[in-house]
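hey so i finally got around to running the thing on that chain from the lab meeting. sorry it took forever, my laptop kept dying and i had to restart like 3 times. anyway pasting the input first so we r on the same page abt which one it is
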Amino acid sequence: MAYTPQSPRAGRTPRRPAGSREDRPAGGSRPRRSNSYDVERAERHSARPSRDTGRFERPERPERRFNREDREGRPSRPARSAGHFDRDDRPARFERRRPAPRAKSADTPERAAAKKSGAIRLNRYIALSGVCSRREADELIATGAVTVNGQICTVMGTLVQPEDKVVVGGQRLKAEKKVYLLMNKPKGYITTLDDPQQRHTVMELIKDACSERIYPVGRLDRNTTGVLLFTNDGDLAKKLTHPSHGARKIYHVGLDKPFAKADMEALLKGLTLEDGPVEVDDAEYVEDSHRKEVGVQIHSGRNRIVRRMFEHLGYTVCKLDRVLFAELTKKNLARGEWRFLTENEVRFLKMNV
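ok and heres what got predicted. didnt touch it at all, straight out
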C-alpha cells in the first residue's frame, strides 16, 4: 500500500473567515466587520484636549534668574569677540584662585655657610645616588635606616657634604650628578684618561668643564675626528658601547684611491677579519668625491674596526671622521669644542638604547 503524505490539517473542517462569500445572502451586500476598534479610538481621541480650545498653548516662561540685563550690582562676564575669550579682561570675581605662595624659612648663618660650601639635603643626596626618590628617602630617614658618618640620622632637612659617609642598608652611597658632554674631537688626541707616554688626551680639552669625574664613551683613534660622548653614567655608557643595543655610528671615510664597486658589494655583504666576522649596516659613495670618499654605517665597537675593514680590502684610510654616534651629531661644534647635552637629548638617548 502506497504511503500518501497528508497535510497537518488533513481531515479537519476548513475554517472559513467571517464575511466569506458563502455566508452572504443572495443579492445582499457584504457584511461589515466589527467597528469596535473605531469606537474605542474615537472615544480615546475625544478625551484628549483639542488645540482649538487653547489648552495646548504654552505658558509664558518666567524670567531667567541670572539674566544679564536684570542683574544689578553684579559684574558680567566679558563677551567673546572674534571667537576669543580674553582672560585679562575678566572681573576679579571670575579670576581663578591661586594658592598663596608658601613662605620660605630663613636659613641660619650655619646652614647658609654649609650650602655655600656645597652641602645638600640628605634626601637629595640619597636620590642622586640612585637608591630611591626623595619621598622614599624621607621615609628611610624617618625610620632610622640612614646613618651619616656612623650616626643614625632621623632629622629631616639635614645637610651633608659630598665627602660625608652616608650608609643605607649597609651600603655606602656616593651622590654624584649625572653629566653628559658632547665633543667634536680633533686630531692628535688619544681617547684615554691617562697616558703614560705623556701624549695629549681628550681629557685635557674638558678639564674645566665640570667638577664631576666623567670619562669618554668608547674610543676614537688618535687621528680620528668627530663625535665623542663623555659621561659619568655607567649604565648608559655600557649600553652605548655594547653591540647588542645597536648604537648607530656613521663614519666619513677618505681613501687613498677610488673605491671599486666590487669592493663596495663585498663590504655590504660583510667581511671576515682576523678577530671574526664584521657586518656593515650601510655604505654609500660621497657625492663629488670620485669614489675616494665613502660613508659607512656600523654598530660594532671593536678597536680600529673601520680602518681594518678597508685595509683588508687593500685601501689606506687617509681621513676618518665620525659624524654620528647614537643619533648625536657634531652640528655647530668646531674641532675641539664641546657642549652639554640638553634634557631632551638625554631623554631621547636613554629611550633609544
